[in-house]
Design a protein that fits this description.
The chain has 347 residues and is an alpha/beta fold. The chain has 12 helices and 12 strands. The strands form 3 sheets. A 7-stranded parallel β-sheet has the order 3-2-1-4-5-7-10, with helices on both faces. Strands 8-9-11 form a 3-stranded mixed β-sheet. A two-stranded parallel sheet has the order 6-12. α4 (100-120) runs parallel beside α6. The longest helix is centred in the middle third of the chain and has 23 residues, at 169-191. This is D-lactaldehyde dehydrogenase.
Length: 347
């Protein structure tokens, strides 16, 4: 039996105006759910109003203003009257040399949502939390030997590295995701609330964006990395395209779908779930893109070795996910970019 059904169910979504969050809101609204989008201010709310005007006008999309997610009790009002929560809001790596500038907001923001749900979330049945494969391992290959990671793994190495003085922003980010997810499970195990939790662990997230952006530079995040690497001009040397810079990916629409299904599937409760389409080296993205983009430079692929792999069997079994292929994601990225006037129309 599903934990939630769309009829008369309301879901609080934090980070609702973000790259993944906007797709989550879209899927929920398309399914018939009511959505309470937690945003920092009215300008962020206006972005979602522009994307979903009919739902905002009908009251199916409403807003909770949370200026600072680490403020004590920041979500106390936002959780009242909702049936489930999807917590996507989390800081990106901070430019500050102090690792705690990234770690504390990640941990405190996650615990803040859970504390508010414990205090005021009488109707809450489940809370889904966006974690990352960074809580399983580093955001780059850690060995010259292909290695597969699963929900059984924890990135304690990142925590130890930060404790040892590392200020590498990607290591700090990995430590923040690991500590935040561990804190969530510890909180739930300690307090044993009526609601359960599920954590979702995606790698790099690529795909078209719903958000307004006038230039590619405004995309930001992981999709900004993809656009800058594959489409932007500049030298693409063998090292950049090869296995040392490979990792894993998931289409933004697939991880958004996973969030919604994590609320709907009873067996998802109490689970960590890796949500990964598969592994890649950058050469593979180029090989797909050159078939779609007029004038794309010819590149000669070599043998493909994926050093970092993630076992996605649980996501397929528990959530019933069917992942998009690279060809689908590239096609839709290029078509979106063409519609925005950033490049010539794809074939």
């Amino acid at each position: 039996m599903p934990v939630l059904t769309s009829t008369n169910s309301k879901v609080l979504v934090t980070g609702a105006n973000g790259y993944i969050g906007a797709w989550v809101v879209k899927i929920l609204l398309d399914r018939g759910y009511s959505v309470r989008a937690a945003v920092r201010n009215s300008a962020k709310a206006d972005i979602l109003r522009g994307l979903f005007p009919s739902h905002a006008g009908s009251g199916k999309l409403e807003f909770a203003y949370v200026a600072d997610l680490v403020t004590e009790g920041a979500f106390d009002d936002a959780v009242v009257g909702v049936d489930a929560i999807l917590h996507l809001a989390s800081p990106l790596p901070s430019p500050s040399p102090d690792p705690q500038a990234t770690i504390r907001p990640a941990v405190d923001g996650t615990l803040g949502v859970l504390k508010s749900a414990l205090k005021n979330g009488e109707g809450v049945k489940r809370i889904g939390i966006t974690s990352s494969t960074a809580s399983l391992t580093m955001l780059a290959p850690v060995s010259d030997t292909p290695t597969t990671f699963s929900e059984a793994d924890w990135n304690d190495a990142a925590i130890r590295a930060v404790q040892g003085g590392s200020t590498n922003p990607f290591v700090v980010y990995a430590a923040s995701k690991t500590l935040a997810e561990k804190a969530a499970w510890e909180f739930h195990n300690t307090h044993k609330p009526a609601w359960d939790i599920a954590t979702l662990n995606p790698p790099f997230v690529y795909g078209p964006t719903l958000l307004p952006a006038k230039t590619p530079a405004e995309i930001g995040g992981t999709q900004g990395i993809w656009y800058g690497t594959v489409i932007a001009t500049g030298n693409k040397d063998k090292e950049q395209l090869g296995e040392k810079n490979g990792y894993a990916w998931v289409d933004v629409r697939d991880i958004a779908e996973a969030h919604v299904r994590a609320l709907e599937k009873e067996e998802a409760g109490g689970q960590r779930i890796v949500v990964s389409s598969g592994s890649y080296i950058w050469q593979e993205w180029f090989d797909v893109a050159k078939r779609r983009l007029p004038g794309f430079p010819e590149l000669t692929p070599g043998d493909v070795t994926h050093l970092a792999k993630f076992d996605n069997a649980k996501s397929e079994r528990v959530l019933g996910l069917k992942y998009r292929a690279k060809e689908d994601t590239v096609r839709d990225i290029l078509e979106d970019a063409a519609e925005r006037g950033w490049l010539a129309k794809a074939d």
